[in-house]
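ok so I'm stuck.
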Amino acid sequence: MSEKQEIKPKYIICDLDGCLINSAWIWEVVKFLNATQDEAFDIFNRLANSDRNTIDLSLYKYLCFKASGGLKIHFLTARSELIEVETINFIQKRTGLIFGKEFTISFRPNNDLSTPAESKAVRLQHFIDSGREIAFAIDDEIEVLKMYTSKNIPCLRWINGFLPIQVVQEYGNQISNLINVREEVCKN
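replied:
not stuck anymore, here's the structure
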């Protein structure tokens, strides 16, 4: 007699800024103001969830499509815990995804001054140590992608506004089906 085996969900790890959320304009403001590093992060935190930020609909639909196949979405961001509630609310408002049901998220601790790759590596290790299995990871930063690769996690470089060649290759002639997938796919 065999015991019933628990099927663990697999996760897609996805970055926010530069991938799902186009917030690059904030850094242009920082540059224009010639802000110090502390001022730059303060400006970013105040504008990170601005209505001016847009969602990359292709990535959103790709995540929805993958979620419809059973994968879970976990956002791993370099954003600070200082803006945790606002960021969760922004994602829910702009995508319709529900925190805790359709996505989870991990923020940089307030006192964490490490690079995005270092910060994400620590939190990723906690995620793995808790027994979660990762199908693949999405990020726009090369150093973060190298970190995933060093942990034998398949990864995909996604730059906000551009459809990665791997996605085009994966779906081939069916790419228009992915691009035109309806948002309800995310709602299981």
